[in-house]
Amino acid sequence: MKRSYLPVVFLLAVLMLNIIFTQYMVHQYFYENYTNTIVAVVINVILFPIAFLIYKKGVNVND
Q: In Å, how far are 3, 13, 25, 29 from 38, measured between CA atoms?
């Protein structure tokens, strides 16, 4: 059986977006742009379950 690396690529992309938006959130909070900070937090809260679902559905740890 051939292993599919597509879920791994999607997981890495989502986690990279999570890191980017976390950095953006810290930057906006430092410069007191609180509405942008809230938007980045909401995006992070949405991205984490997506990453978890990709991990559970596509990445088989025991293979």
A: 39, 22, 8, 9
For the chain, what are the domain ranges? 6-45+53-58
Residues 6+ apart with CB under 8 A from 11: 51, 54, 55, 58, 59
Query: Are 25 and 44 contacting, i.e. CB atoms less than 8 angstroms apart?
Result: yes
For 33, the 3-state DSSP assignment is coil
pLDDT single digits (tens) 4-57: 789 889 999 999 999 999 999 999 999 999 999 999 999 999 999 999 999 898
Which whole-number Å values give the CA distances from 6 to 25, 51, 56, 63, in the listed order? 29, 13, 14, 15
